[in-house]
Design a protein that fits this description.
globular, 4 helices, eight-stranded antiparallel sheet
């Protein structure tokens, strides 16, 4: 689910809370050492995300916020902001030359540069949160 979050409204806030959970409290955020990534450069996106990227050869940026039941990926396009809500049960990450996040038939790849390397600890924290979420449910693999 992708929302235009340039302007905030209560309906979208409630919708995001329903999909990825409430935001962490200030003290929970401090205890975790932060819940947001630094800004990363987008290398490539799936065709169904192209409409949210800059049309000209401009650099596209995104950052990620952890929530209790998922993540929010904030994409900047000029003066507009878009939010991609991904519940943990749909989140798939690949370590490629950089990182690639897949969900809902879409993907976003981040460039392997200095800002990506600064976010290494954040990606580890995100995977830990996903594992904690998955352990709440009794999965049986056949």
């Amino acid at each position: 689910m992708i929302l235009n979050s340039t302007y905030k409204n209560k309906e979208e806030k409630q919708l995001l809370e329903d999909v990825v959970g409430k935001p962490f409290s200030f003290f929970e955020s401090l205890k975790m050492g932060g819940i947001g990534s630094k800004r990363m450069i987008i290398r490539d996106v799936s065709p169904n995300l192209k409409e949210f990227m800059n049309k000209v050869d401009d650099i596209n940026y995104a950052n990620i916020e952890l929530r209790k039941s998922g993540v929010l990926i904030y994409i900047n396009k000029g003066l507009q902001n878009f939010t991609w809500a991904i519940p943990y049960y749909q989140l798939v990450m690949y370590k490629t030359n950089g990182a690639s996040i897949h969900a809902q038939g879409r993907f976003i790849q981040f460039k392997n540069n200095k800002t990506f390397k600064e976010n290494k600890g954040f990606f580890e924290k995100m995977l830990d949160e996903k594992i904690k979420y998955d352990l709440q449910y009794n999965f049986q693999y056949i």
